[in-house]
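Q: Two folds, back to back.
A: First:
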Amino acid sequence: MATFKIYKLHFTAPLHIGDKRDDEGVSMKTIQSDTLMAALTAVLAKVGNKIPDDGDLGFTVSSLFPYYQSGNESRVSYFLPMPLQSRLPKLTDVGNAKLVKKIRWVDAQFYPSILAGENLFDGKSEHFEHIHGEYLSSSLIPDNFIRSEVCQRVKIEDRTGKSDAVPYYVDRITFAPGAGFYFLATGDTTLLDKGMNVLTQWGLGTDRNVGYGFFEYTTDELTIDTPADANHAVSMSILIPADKKQLDELFASDEIAYELTRRGGWITSMPHHQLRKNAIYAFMPGSVFNKPQGDTCGAIVDLAPAIVKNSKDSHPVWRDGRAILLPIKR
């Protein structure tokens, strides 16, 4: 059994999450754990908190996942990522098979069965009615409770009126009432609470200067039954292995499944805010590995480029690749 403190974010403004192409017409659909940790580190430093020399703030977080609650008295559906390459049932109905393959998010109520290696759809036809597009939940989940919409904006190159305004498009995420993102947290959350209180005023994502990304938050607790005899682990966060030995341990199975992503982006602190961080590859949430020792795994790495390290204003640019892991049977 694993119990987590969770932070529920209710966005009071649209959200835009810049993608690696820096194309405002495309927004990523969630915020990853390393991005959240970078934002928390930045705001804590800005309000005078000393950041430890190794970048460790004392806690580990998951990536942001969707939640939905239809009313104040109803159950909250906390969604978790479907583990990659989960075993599919042998279905004769092609339509049902296509429905099952579309599932990306599993309500926490079903996650213990997923972790135990059970297939929810083998001989259990009632579960098909719980599929709502990419989401699996016994609650009634409306279509597009998290919406992506493209809106037009105008860039004015100068204030004289002599040049034409240039239209461009922004993909923004909006939420239905009762919907938002949440994340899991483990460890000492003292600094996390301080950082979140500042971050509500700072905002998340890009285009914060035009009012995007602001939110309120509440805390809750989530308990997940986990199998005692699990032989693998599924990541809830961006994972950067500490070294080759740890990577070999994670890969010591024929039943692993993973997705890689390139992590980098812009430095946000002055005077280096126009420089890019070094890039590193990491494993995405939902990746499944051979079960390592402990409930977390990974490392915090410094992505400061040489020009920053050699400057008089040198400081580390931390990328937190520690991941929360849940045991899973394969």
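A: Second:
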Amino acid sequence: MVQVLERLGHTVDYPEAQTCCGQPAFNSGYWDEARAVAERQMAVFRDAEVVVIASGSCGAMVRVFYPELFRHHPREKEARALAAKTFEFSDFLVNQLGVLDVGARFPGRATFHDGCHALRELGLKKPPRRLLQRVQGRSWWK
């Protein structure tokens, strides 16, 4: 991700203080524990212009479930602000930057599997496919 974004002319800051998004605790019903992890993430990314996440699961946690986790909580506004500026990688490239070709090459055969959270929670079926269609040597693409 960093190489692609920098090649496209963007500056990438990777805060080492970031941790897990809190989804394991959230999914297990430990919302207080998930909220504590989320509060750390909100602090780490408070001043970020944009947050780009490689994982559809973590992206869904921040975009969809942080607002739910903080509903009627004093930090709800902060959770919604982070959610609004967080994007899964293919979504950011295709829908925010308008990039369809990242200069990728792959001469072999490949299968693409939609990540459950990216597909179901974020509705991201087309962006990864639009990027894959531009992969050079893609005789494998149907």
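Q: And?
A: Residues 31-44 form the longest helix (14 residues).
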